[in-house]
Fold this protein.
Amino acid sequence: MNELPPFAPPPHRRRWPWGKKHTLAALLGGLLAVLLLFMAVSGFFAWRLSRQLAAVQMAAVKVQAAAKTQDLVQAQASLEDLKTVLSEVSQTYQGLAFWRLTPLAGYYRDGQQALLAAASGISAGEKLIGAIEPYADILGFQGEGSYTGGSAEDRVVKIIETAGLVAPVLDAVDADLAAMSQALAQIEPERYSFKFQGQPLSQSILKAQVQGQAAAQTVARFKPVLKQLPAITGLTAPKKYLVIFQNDGELRPTGGFMTAYSVMKVDKGKLLPEKSDDIYDLDGKFTQAVTPPDVLKKYLLTLRWNLRDMNLSPDFAESMRQFLSYYAKLPGEGPVDGVIAIDTQLLADLIKILGPIDVPGYGRFTADLDPRCQCPSIIYELEDISTRPTPYFRSERKAILGPMMGAILQKVYATDNQAWPQLFQTIWRHLEEKHVLFYFTDESAQSAAEGLAVAGRVASPSADLDYFMTVDANLGGAKSNIFTSQEVTQEIRAEPRQTSKTVTLVYKNPQKSSNCNLEAGQLCLNGKMPSWVRVYVPQGSTLIDAQGFEPDSLTTTSELGYTVFSGIYILQPESLAKIVLNYTVLYQPQASYQLQLQKQPGTKAPHYQITVNGASQSLDLIKDQTLTFPL
């Protein structure tokens, strides 16, 4: 009989207890609810932020518009509006604080820094407007200035006396701008590769960071000037300055041939001319035998280095230190507190604003176009007074600078208040473009001038960028630079181990030649021009080859921390001269190629065309500039 197998119960099927199912569902539901709540809250605050940020943008546009029109009243009102809407944004943004606990924490921190930067910027703007407002009518801003009464001369003195009070305000502005710049620097642009209003947001952030740094640097440049202004303008003690007229029609390294001078005393902000003379009178007193550089021996046919030719260094301070070391020992002269150099371009532009000026003993000067030179009439008349050869002694050419400056000052003081902003802006433009240069014997005053970039200094060498500057010296005697233009083309090949450059200099003189025969007694404005050009490049650069120089004139030297390629070229009227340099530089760029360009004082606006690895930039060099090319 067969035995039945033992009873085996069916396999047990594991089931989730109802309680555990409920727990999981609750967990998932809770997470979903939290997520939905997070999204809802974030969405709500994002919606509010978007509306408020639109208001911020509108207020910011109004601030920019007021700044462009130089309307201080509107700028102040717009800043108040911007401050109000930004405060609302800040409060709304705090509602997103829980983002700090999420992967979005980095974005939240960037937003906090942006709000901090904006608040600091508004604070700086409010303080700056308060500092500028008393001088609104002088500086060219719309607003009610505090110094509108009294004579023009009294107003200038009052402004100088009170300018020192602005320095502490600028300290506070500087602190705000430093906070703004520091906050902007904390934002990481690489997070924001997407576009906003058609542009990559990362580029906008980088631009804001650069502008923040530039604003802080600008205020830092002005602070020392305001602190030194009372001393410079003779408020603490009278000062004496040597004013030199540099004829940029006969270009020299610091801006032009030193043709005339005047000694000016400044006492409590008032200018008092003491004497005025021709530069040749100084050389008549200068009996010390100083050996000139070889280039002057050959082209000026002189065995003595005259004072009038001592501005050979393109660094204005270096040239003036040498000049004053001899000038102070001349009979009837003596020490001065500094040197101010001006050229014809400043005088011509001042006359354009002020209108014709009458100089006793010299006649009327205007800025009207003179067909004899296709230049302002004042330039032709000054050249005629100082240059035209005559068979008799012309005593009046000696003293032109002093009387002309006196006539200009009288016209400035007598002019309508509405012209002052244009005068101020014109003078500032000429300072930036190196048509006015300052050198002070006092170290603090000189440091302030250098910080403001009005001292005509050659920049200190840096291994972190490329450098380029051309310096011309007209050694022909004619005023051919009135008609001469300069173009510079650079082809740069930046490679990991070596940077090679091809630089082409083109000088053009399209005008006909003047009658330069001394016996004819005509004004020799345009004639054959032998010019000594020096090209300043980074130290250690190697010249491969050069074309366009006169035979045996090419040299390679070292000056002011730079390698210098120099030589002579000849430019005739109605022709051009072309120089080509091939050389290598030691500069090895990383992420970008930086090229520092410096402008020679007295030049107009040389045209530059720069190409780095196929990427090009062009500009008219009206002032020193640094270009950046991404690699």
Q: What stands out?
A: Confidence is low (pLDDT under 50) at residues 20-49. Residues 32-226 form one domain.
